[in-house]
Specification:
The strands form 2 sheets. The chain has a 5-stranded mixed beta sheet with strand order 5-6-4-7-8. Strands 1-2-3-9 form a 4-stranded parallel beta sheet, sandwiched between helices. The longest helix is centred in the middle third of the chain and has 16 residues. It folds into 2 domains: 120 residues, Rossmann fold (3-Layer(aba) Sandwich); 97 residues, Dihydrodipicolinate Reductase, domain 2, CATH 3.30.360.10. It is an alpha/beta fold. Bound molecules: NADPH dihydro-nicotinamide-adenine-dinucleotide phosphate and the ligand O=C(O)C1=N[C@H](C(=O)O)C[C@H](O)C1. The ligand O=C(O)C1=N[C@H](C(=O)O)C[C@H](O)C1 binds next to helix 6. Pathway: Amino-acid biosynthesis; L-lysine biosynthesis via DAP pathway; (S)-tetrahydrodipicolinate from L-aspartate: step 4/4. This is 4-hydroxy-tetrahydrodipicolinate reductase. It catalyses: (S)-2,3,4,5-tetrahydrodipicolinate + NADP(+) + H2O = (2S,4S)-4-hydroxy-2,3,4,5-tetrahydrodipicolinate + NADPH + H(+); (S)-2,3,4,5-tetrahydrodipicolinate + NAD(+) + H2O = (2S,4S)-4-hydroxy-2,3,4,5-tetrahydrodipicolinate + NADH + H(+).
Length: 251
């Protein structure tokens, strides 16, 4: 992802690549190079150190690294509270189709008694379930709560550990790791006599780059923490998903 992002920024006429850092490189190289925005694509074990450095130095952050928890988001909010004017976008998925599929899942959620998510990725992925699946489950669960839908039907009384997936906000999420895959997700909705499947496939990492570039262009104008690229994609006035006020959390 980092290699693709470097290529994408270099190819963009309106952006300038001033630094490209890898493991072990001195983060202060970003400050010395005058970086305005940093794109963070490493792993769950290093993202916090890198992002804290950026925020403390007034460098806006576009973060694709996954493995986030509510406690980790709170840490970022704490740093940003001391850095008014600095923006951080944390995007569980930069793929336009993935963001659309999350939106479609939100739309469908109130109509179905059952919902489960299957995410499928390459076996080099560190975190499970994927950030996208966690985010999708949370969005679906929020809509189910608002619609007054209760717990899902499930008569399972005996199961091997993991057989019913991870419980994310009441939504079972199943993670497949398979050589040959890139990044894929199915959201399965079920009700009496019908099943709706919303599937998205990322065929290569280049597919994430338009979203990365959108984040880089937009984050300087969005102080505070923004979770989800949809807030930059769907920001027409009156749009309930994208409407945002600058300087506050947007999730
Ligand atoms: N939001 C989105 O749309 C997407 C998000 N992702 C997420 O982005 C992250 C990266 O994915 P991917 O590129 O596939 O993973 P890779 O493992 O292929 O690449 C991660 C890179 O980060 C480097 N790295 C590790 N630690 C540090 C550090 N402290 N400082 C600088 N570089 C470091 C690694 O170096 P080394 O080779 O030495 O280990 C490696 O080159 C993951 O969290 C993944 O889930 C991925 C795809 C899309
Ligand atoms: O690690 C990956 O590859 C991906 N990670 C992100 C996630 O965890 O959702 C986005 C995409 O699925 C690819």
């Amino acid at each position: 992802m980092g290699t693709e992002a470097v290529r994408a920024v270099e190819a963009a006429d309106d952006l300038e690549l001033v630094a490209a850092l890898g493991r072990g490189d001195d983060l202060s190289a970003m400050v010395e190079a005058g970086a305005e925005v940093a794109v963070e694509l490493t792993g769950p074990e290093s993202v916090l150190t890198n992002l804290e450095f950026c925020v403390r130095n007034g460098i806006h952050g576009v973060v694709g690294t996954t493995g986030w928890t509510p406690e980790r988001f709170d840490l970022v909010r704490g740093w940003l509270a001391d850095a008014p004017g600095t923006g951080v976008l944390i995007a569980p998925n930069f793929g336009i189709g993935a963001i659309l599929s999350m939106r479609f899942a939100r739309e469908a959620a109130r109509f179905y008694e059952s919902v489960e998510i299957v995410e499928l990725h390459h076996p080099d992925k560190a975190d499970a379930p994927s950030g996208t699946a966690v985010r999708t489950a949370q969005l679906v669960a929020e809509v189910r709560r608002e619609a007054g839908l209760g717990a899902q039907p499930d008569a399972t009384s005996t199961a091997l550990p993991g057989a019913r997936g991870a419980d994310v906000d009441g939504v079972p999420v199943h993670a497949v790791r398979l050589r040959g895959l890139v990044a894929h997700q199915e959201v399965l909705f079920g009700d009496a006599g019908e099943v709706l499947t919303i599937r998205h496939d990322s065929m290569n990492r280049g597919s994430f780059m338009p979203g990365v570039l959108l984040g880089v262009r937009r984050v300087p104008g969005a102080p505070g923490l923004t979770i989800g690229l949809e807030h930059f994609l769907f920001d027409q006035p009156g749009d309930p998903v994208g409407g945002r006020s600058h300087g506050t959390d947007v999730e």
